[in-house]
Design goal:
The complex is a heterodimer. Chain A has no helices and eleven strands. Chain A is mainly β. Classes of the chains: A mainly beta, B mainly beta.
Amino acid sequence: DADVTQTPRNRITKTGKRIMLECSQTKGHDRMYWYRQDPGLGLQLIYYSFDVKDINKGEISDGYSVSRQAQAKFSLSLESAIPNQTALYFCATSAQGGTQYFGPGTRLTVL
Amino acid sequence: GDSVTQMEGPVTLSEEAFLTINCTYTATGYPSLFWYVQYPGEGLQLLLKATKADDKGSNKGFEATYRKETTSFHLEKGSVQVSDSAVYFCALNNAGGTSYGKLTFGQGTILTVHP
């Protein structure tokens, strides 16, 4: 089984809808991250969490919120989706100072 | 703040050609450096890493040397294969700076290898 899983893998939604993307990990890491990937821009950090009670904004947090329900679970929400949030979204985990391990990604399309 | 700059792509090579993808960085302190690879339709996978100056990371025939004097971490492979076709990302992790250990990525370089 994969160490980092994301659901759903693909989602098409309409402008104004609320969307939640979920991430689970079995690596036992404290740190979890949400990234957005746009063509030609690499990955940009949306939010990161160093433990259940420590959540921080990344480079592009506007329009997004997160919830760290447990050490193993970190969800990303779009409260009111807009078309320019169409992108690939990746969750990642790491131990302190360690390598980040990525999930397979969620392809989100906002119409 | 921290930043990573990769050579512009895409890069197209014939099988068995030599590959270089340039990567330079700007960071305070002593970051760790990484190359990640993303195969079509998949997430990112760690390819190799180096944690201090002059370290060489290597994996699957790929190599990169941490050059602090030139702030570079260029990726090389002596003989590429069609299966190496992917997007390659250079990244840094600056646990000692103000970035609290987050990864900063370059924009990615698309590599296509033809038979």
